[in-house]
Amino acid sequence: MQRLIPVLNNDHVPLHLISVINTLLTAAKEISHRLHQGSLAGTLGSTLDENIQGETQKKLDVVSNQLIKNMLLETNLVHAVASEEEDDVVMGNPDAKYLVAYDPLDGSSNIDINGSVGTIFSILEKPDHCAEGKELFLQTGDEQIAAGYILYGPSSLLVMTTGQGVRVFTLDHTVGEFLLTVDKLNIPADTQEFAVNMSNQRHWTKPMQQYIQDLLSGELGPRKKNFNMRWNAAMVSDVHRVLSRGGIFTYPADCKHPEKPCKLRLLYEANPMSFLVEQAGGRASTGYERIMSLQPTEIHQRVSVIMGSRNEVDTCLDYFKSIP
Ligand code: AHG
Ligand code: MN
Ligand code: MN
Ligand code: MN
């Protein structure tokens, strides 16, 4: 089995970028260890603090965020980081060129029930034009030079892309190395599996309500398929299933909280996951626009997400085209 560094070297990934990715993995190994220690590590449960998202921070949200931020900034290779758990951008080496947006722990609500969680990262380069602070990160998803996640499940997996397809590496705990286990992931174009939080159904917009209603009726289009549903409440885990065996994952806009019509964040959830899904032959849309074409205006902005098997996503998008 090939180790990460020779594989990325072979892919002509610049050495400094390999070093940034390797630093993320060092932090990930520490996070993986604490997760697998469970309550023995003393880092389960919530803090008394709320993050800028309005969420009560889990202890591991904070610990993971600190680990990743400190390790990345220590490399001197990172110009700035943006994190779900940081109100603002944190500046690093002014002469460095890499920008890292990350969700230190995705699916936090699963931590205390021993469910799957993950770390999501998106790597950009400092823009050519003069930019400071959060403006550095206001780049479309197409500008990403690398993206991926570490899924802390029964095994710890790194799933990543540098724009040359999607590779999967499995953490070999005996030697502490991520070894290449899937050379190129491809999402099947069709599926009979959907992932959505059905409890929000009455709050969705009409197109999504009609699509899911038709999907559940078994009468969807000429294919008349019976669908199965999965919902892990952790985007990393739900999208990993879609990448592994196909499916359609959606967290659509809803009117449950009018001030926050969307749940998922563009910079460190939707964009990196869209990069992976498109590199694996899938589709990723807001319902009206391709996610990676969106021009961000805020580092924590939220977006409606529909992604996965391209033929099924296209069927769903037809509803957004035809229903006002
Ligand atoms: P995070 O734990 O980083 O805040 O993200 C949680 C997100 C995403 O992982 C998941 O798909 C979604 O929240 C689940 O939302 P529900 O709790 O509404 O199911
Ligand atoms: Mn959160
Ligand atoms: Mn998340
Ligand atoms: Mn998170």
TrEMBL record:
Its main location: cytoplasm. GO terms for molecular function: fructose 1,6-bisphosphate 1-phosphatase activity; magnesium ion binding. InterPro entries: FBPase_C_dom, FBPase_class-1, FBPase_N, FBPtase. Mg(2+) 2 binds at D103, D106, E269. Mg(2+) 1 binds at E84, D103, L105. Residues 17-181 form the Fructose-1-6-bisphosphatase class I N-terminal domain. Keywords: Carbohydrate metabolism, Cytoplasm, Hydrolase, Magnesium, Metal-binding. Its EC number is 3.1.3.11. Gene3D superfamilies: 3.40.190.80, Fructose-1,6-Bisphosphatase, subunit A, domain 1. It holds the Pfam family FBPase_C. Substrate binds at D106, G107, S108, S109, N197, K263. GO terms for biological process: fructose 1,6-bisphosphate metabolic process; fructose 6-phosphate metabolic process; fructose metabolic process; gluconeogenesis; sucrose biosynthetic process. It catalyses: beta-D-fructose 1,6-bisphosphate + H2O = beta-D-fructose 6-phosphate + phosphate. It is found in: Cytoplasm. Pathway: Carbohydrate biosynthesis. GO terms for cellular component: cytosol. Homotetramer. This is Fructose-1,6-bisphosphatase class 1. It comes from Aliidiomarina haloalkalitolerans. The gene is fbp.
